[in-house]
């Protein structure tokens, strides 16, 4: 299948999922009420709550799911290409953990309660600091191994500080809130969150999509890539900065949602061939589709309180991943 | 007995003043957490309650669980509250941050109640929140009544209070600066955790308990089901031996799960169960 054809199919699936997601919520709305809520100018309705539910609760949630999912899927694909390691995923460079830590600190100091954008802003600051630290520690000429090791060290440090915040937390409610937040959710996010995350994710995604040629050359090995005129230090900084921008903003607004960045490239790679550049755009679309599907599942599965998104992506993702492993084993 | 009757009278008093409020204010109120639930159930007529949290109907945690029966219980979800017609949503100061922020954006009045750590603060919060909810008179009456009850309890407080160790099943206790310390002190006890210099909700370890044998042990939530790992401390043989050899007061968790109302009930319970002071040696 060509990249273009796959992208088109994914786009169609994404549209269907988006439409479905918009129909889900606690308010019992009929399809005509939903349309009236989304397009109040065309279909006037006398209940002002309809527009609020559709435009300010359901729409931001769906949009944020698309943005976050695309960021995770694309960052995963680009990092697997850059690090030439199938196990690479967005959290490997430590950005996710640093963004989490930033947000956790906002909870810890109670800033999240006073000012609603404190949480994503603190997350983005955490991600930015973490990435600068990563680049400073590993240096632009760093080898793949150094990058991974530095990322792991950063992740561990941020994880430890997050645990410390939980350990010293002043109130059990704060602990619950932090733990739940870390499992990832798109619940009750506002358009402000979407508008805050989107520019960072967009900038990051553009950087990553433009790295395709370099990543393709890199499959031949570092020396061969250099001889093809690829400036490796620049490529590394470009991919890491892109992934950090996209994933940092995603984690800052939705919490840590695992597995999307790891499995989506693996799922799509057999369909478009093993050229890293061919997997990039489909991974963004596939990530958005998977996250939207997971957010639909979160709301359809009956539970005492809504399941957390990270839990569901892992539960959906693992069987897929296991099937892939079995298939690879049979082919080997 | 006198005390129980006084509390009963106070409740009747608050019930009687409810209908007058209902005519003035029809705004509907929802709560996302236990402490808000109990406050709503105490201050407002059922018609004004738009939604409660799931904990509201748990008799092990909520002192007002009986009154919550039949009222709508909703998960903390902006869409659900909006659809239930909530004009005001009461939440804790921590938890459900996104939901509460979104509701505030949508024009709903959001009240966040931080935990209070002294009786005076709890009464001040009761008065201020009841004013926001449009139930100022009921809130004022309840607070004054609580204060009078406390004054009566303090008058009966012994000159030589018994030393008590407070425990949750996980070995957690409550030192200085916590509302449990306040409840113990006002209930006529010396709080071991505070006396050994602890502050906050830390653990009171077994060694400290052995070195400073208290007159009584006060336990809360030991009867909660399904807390297996947390129950570990309460099953320690040494703890069980120490508990068996002295008065052990099982304080109902529903009386102290929240720092505000109904803390006075917890204080009264502790005062009524108070053993005489006396050095205890094992």
Brief sketch in words of this structure:
The complex is a heterodimer of chains A (332) and B (282). Chain A is mostly helical.
Structural features, described:
The complex is a heterodimer of chains A (about 325) and B (about 280). Chain A is mainly alpha-helical and about 325 residues long. Helix content of chain A is about 75%, strand content about 0%. Chain A has helices spanning about 5-20, 30-40, 50-85, 95-110, 110-115, 120-140, 145-165, 170-180, 190-210, 210-220, 220-225, 230-255, 260-270, 275-300, 310-330. Chain A starts with a helix and ends with a helix. By secondary structure, chain B is an alpha/beta fold. Chain B folds into 2 domains: about 1-150, Rossmann fold, CATH 3.40.50; about 160-270, Rossmann fold, CATH 3.40.50.1980. In chain B, about 45% of the residues lie in helices and about 10% in strands. Chain B is built from 14 helices and 8 strands. A 4-stranded parallel β-sheet of chain B has the order 2-1-3-4, with helices on both faces. A 4-stranded parallel β-sheet of chain B has the order 6-5-7-8. In chain B, strand 5 (about 165), helix 9 and strand 6 form a beta-alpha-beta unit. Chain B starts with a helix and ends in a 10-residue tail after the last helix. The model of chain B is unreliable at about 1-20 (pLDDT under 50). Classes of the chains: A mainly alpha (about 325), B alpha/beta (about 280). Chains A and B meet through helix 3 and helix 8 of A and helix 5 and helix 6 of B.
Sheet with the most strands, sense and barrel status of chain B: 4 strands, parallel
Strand content of chain B: 5-15%
Please give the number of β-strands of chain A: 0
Q: Might you state the CATH topology name of chain A? A: ABC transporter involved in vitamin B12 uptake, BtuC
Biggest interchain interface, per-side counts: A-B, 32 and 29 residues
Overall CATH architecture of the largest domain in chain B: 3-Layer(aba) Sandwich
Element order of chain A: H for helix, E for strand: HHHHHHHHHHHHHHH
Q: Which regions of chain B have little confidence, pLDDT < 50, spanning 5+ residues?
A: 1-22
CATH structural fold name of the largest domain in chain B: Rossmann fold
Helix count from the secondary structure assignment of chain A: 15
- The CATH architecture of chain A comes to Orthogonal Bundle
What helical percentage do the residues of chain B reach? 40-55%
- CATH level-1 class of the largest domain in chain B: Alpha Beta
> How large is the radius of gyration of chain B?
20 Å
Instruction: Please state the overall shape of chain B, judged from the principal axes of the Cα atoms.
Output: globular
Membrane topology (chain A): Multi-pass membrane protein
InterPro entries (chain A): ABC_BtuC-like, ABC_transptr_permease_BtuC
Keywords (chain A): Cell membrane, Membrane, Transmembrane, Transmembrane helix, Transport
Subcellular location (chain A): Cell membrane
């Amino acid at each position: 299948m060509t990249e273009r054809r796959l992208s088109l199919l994914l786009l169609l699936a994404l549209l269907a999922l988006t439409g479905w997601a918009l129909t889900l919520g606690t308010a019992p709305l009929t399809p005509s009420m939903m349309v009236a809520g989304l397009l109040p100018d065309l279909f006037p309705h006398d209940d002002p709550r309809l527009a609020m539910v559709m435009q300010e609760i359901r729409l931001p949630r769906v949009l944020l799911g698309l943005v976050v999912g695309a960021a995770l899927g694309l960052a995963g694909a680009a990092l697997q290409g850059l690090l030439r390691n199938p196990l690479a995923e967005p959290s490997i460079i430590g950005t996710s953990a640093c963004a989490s830590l930033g947000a956790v600190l906002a909870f810890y100091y109670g800033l999240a309660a006073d000012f609603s954008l404190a949480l994503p802003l603190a997350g983005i600051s955490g991600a930015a600091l973490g990435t600068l630290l990563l680049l400073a520690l590993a240096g632009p000429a760093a080898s793949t191994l150094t990058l991974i090791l530095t990322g792991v060290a950063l992740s561990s440090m941020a994880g430890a500080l997050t645990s410390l915040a939980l350990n010293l937390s002043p109130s059990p409610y704060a602990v619950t809130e932090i733990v739940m937040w870390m499992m990832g959710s798109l619940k009750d996010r506002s358009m402000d969150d979407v508008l805050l995350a989107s520019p960072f994710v967009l900038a990051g995604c553009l950087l990553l999509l433009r790295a395709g040629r370099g990543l393709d050359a890199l499959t031949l090995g570092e020396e061969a890539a250099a001889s093809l005129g690829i400036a490796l230090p620049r490529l590394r900084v470009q991919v890491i900065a892109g992934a950090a921008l996209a994933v940092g903003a995603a984690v800052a607004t939705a919490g840590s949602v695992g597995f999307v960045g790891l499995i989506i490239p693996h799922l799509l790679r057999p369909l478009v061939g093993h050229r890293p550049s061919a997997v990039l755009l489909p991974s963004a679309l596939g990530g958005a589709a998977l996250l939207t599907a997971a957010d639909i599942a979160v709301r359809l599965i009956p539970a005492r309180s809504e399941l957390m998104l990270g839990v569901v992506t892992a539960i959906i993702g693992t069987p897929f991943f296991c099937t892939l492993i079995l298939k690879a084993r049979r082919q080997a | 007995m006198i005390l129980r009757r006084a509390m009963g009278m106070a409740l009747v008093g608050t019930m009687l003043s409810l209908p007058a409020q209902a005519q003035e204010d029809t705004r509907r109120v929802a709560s996302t957490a236990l402490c808000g639930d109990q406050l709503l159930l105490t201050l407002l007529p059922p018609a004004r309650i738009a939604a409660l949290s799931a904990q509201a109907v748990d008799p092990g945690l909520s002192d007002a669980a009986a009154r919550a029966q039949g009222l709508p219980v909703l998960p903390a979800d902006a869409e659900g509250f909006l659809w239930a017609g909530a004009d005001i949503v009461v939440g804790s100061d921590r938890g459900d941050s996104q939901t509460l922020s979104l509701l505030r954006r949508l024009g709903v009045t959001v009240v966040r109640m931080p935990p209070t750590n002294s009786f005076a603060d709890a009464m001040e919060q009761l008065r201020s929140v009841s004013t926001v909810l449009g139930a100022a008179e009921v809130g004022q009456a309840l607070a004054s009544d609580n204060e009078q009850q406390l004054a009566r309890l303090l008058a009966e407080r012994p000159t030589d209070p018994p030393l008590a160790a407070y425990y949750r099943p996980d070995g957690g206790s409550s030192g200085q600066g916590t509302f449990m310390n306040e409840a113990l002190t006002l209930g006529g006890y010396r709080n071991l955790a505070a006396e050994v210099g602890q502050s906050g909700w830390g653990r009171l370890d077994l060694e400290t308990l052995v070195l400073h044998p208290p007159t009584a042990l006060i336990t809360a939530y030991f009867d909660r089901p399904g807390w297996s790992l947390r129950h570990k401390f309460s099953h320690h043989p040494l703890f069980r031996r120490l508990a068996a050899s002295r008065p052990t007061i099982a304080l109902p968790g529903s009386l102290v799960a929240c720092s505000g109302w109904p803390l006075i009930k917890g204080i009264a319970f502790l005062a009524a169960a108070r053993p005489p002071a006396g050095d205890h040696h094992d």
